[in-house]
Amino acid sequence: MRQVEVSTPSLLDEKLWPAYTGILVFFVWFPYVWPFAYVAGVILGLMLVRKWLTKQIVEATGLSFHQKEQLLFVNDRVSLKMDVTGIERLETLGIPTSVRMVTGHGLMFDEDQSVHTLQLRHESTYLLPIHAKQRGPVQIDECTLQFKLPFWLGTIFVTGFTLPSWIILPPITRQNRFDSRLVRMGDRLVKHSPLNDPLMMQGTKRYEQEPVKQIDWVATAKTGKLQARVFQRQNLDTFTLALDLSGPLGNGLHARYEELIQQAAYLVSYLVKEDCKVELFINRLDADNQIDHLRMSDGRKQLRLALVRLAWVHESDRFVASKRFNQIIDRQKHPHAEVIRIDASLLNRIAVG
Q1: What are the tens digits of pLDDT across the range 154-188?
Q2: What mean pLDDT, rounded, does the chain reach?
Q3: Rg value, the chain, Cα
Q4: Less Cβ around it within 10 Å: N or C end of the chain?
């Protein structure tokens, strides 16, 4: 619901209405002081004009936002569409109008400013540049329409609009040169990856923009057309990702937990793109006091759900120690899935690599 506040000079304060009314009624009948009655009458007239203008402005104007995307990645830049109604009425009244917006943590306007003031002109539609800076749920915290009244009558502030919000997802690009092939193998005894295993090849098919390493050059030479390998799906195509954000001693929150979250996002995206089934465990407690667990599935929907889960991780969450977390994973993970552990030891291996 919209809220209206009026900032006026102290002489035009609404609380002085009874005093000015009393001066007008009593002083007008006495000599020597009757000019004060006329001054009080002028002030009351200005207050009535201000009240009329406030009613006209609030009823005629409105503000709405239209966003195309609700999910953004870190460092994404988008445009937010803002529509203002009642511009014609404001031009008729000759009232300067501006919009002041304040963004929340992790969201910036153009030139990395968290506060943006826009002077409204003749247009009714405006495009606001938005820059996603940090992972997590964000929104525009404050939006105020400001109307500067003539004759020093004050300024009207209108708030309470429906404000847009976004979820900024962690990046899914690899930020280091560490070869994560061994990490993606999990804890299996046979140290080879089941993804596109040459021993599990079924045949070939027409090339459809698969990676170059999947091209079957022998079949391509025989058919004269580019052919890609087709691999057999097996149980080892299911993975359990265990994201442990604990510190090196197995408790608390790791100082570099953002890097661990980014590694988890990259591995989830890689496995989903390879047509694998993935489940995700995070060593934090959800609203039901249970370990945060995303059930086994595949496809783009699973990738989106996993990235949203990772985006909602906050340093104020309740985290579980590594020892207890590993026990829960061994008990609840998919029986045929291979475990990929993303924890403090992974950061050490990345540093060595």
Answers
A1: 899 999 899 999 999 999 886 554 444 444 444 44
A2: 85
A3: 32
A4: N
Question: Is 346:273 a contact under the CB 8 Å cutoff?
Answer: no
Which residue, 268, 260, 220, 221, is CA-closest to 240? 268
Q: Which residues 6+ apart lie within 8 Å of 136 measured at CB?
A: 105, 106, 167, 168, 311, 312, 314
Q: How far apart are CA 210 and CA 224, in angstroms?
A: 18
Q: Number of C-alpha atoms within 13 angstroms, CB side, residue 201?
A: 12
User: Per residue in 249-282, pLDDT tens?
Assistant: 888 889 999 999 999 999 899 888 888 889 999 9
Rounded Cα distance, 115 and 101, in Å: 6
Counts of helices then strands in the chain (DSSP H, E)? 9, 17
Residue where the block lists tokens 């993975």? 239
Please report how many Cα atoms fall inside a 13 Å half-sphere around the Cα of residue 179, on the Cβ side: 4
Q: Could you tell me whether strands 77-85 and 125-132 are parallel, antiparallel, or unpaired per DSSP bridges?
A: antiparallel
- Alpha helices by DSSP H, listed for 61-169, are 87-93
pLDDT tens-digit readout, 292-315: 999 998 889 999 999 999 999 999
What does the pLDDT read at residue 141?
92
Residue with tokens 């994201």: 243
| Residue found by looking up tokens 């400001």 in the block | 146
pLDDT band at 37 (very low <50, low <70, confident <90, very high): confident
* Tokens describing residue 346: 């992974």
Could you give the 3-state DSSP secondary structure of residue 207? coil
pTM of the predicted model as reported, rounded to 2 decimal places: 0.76
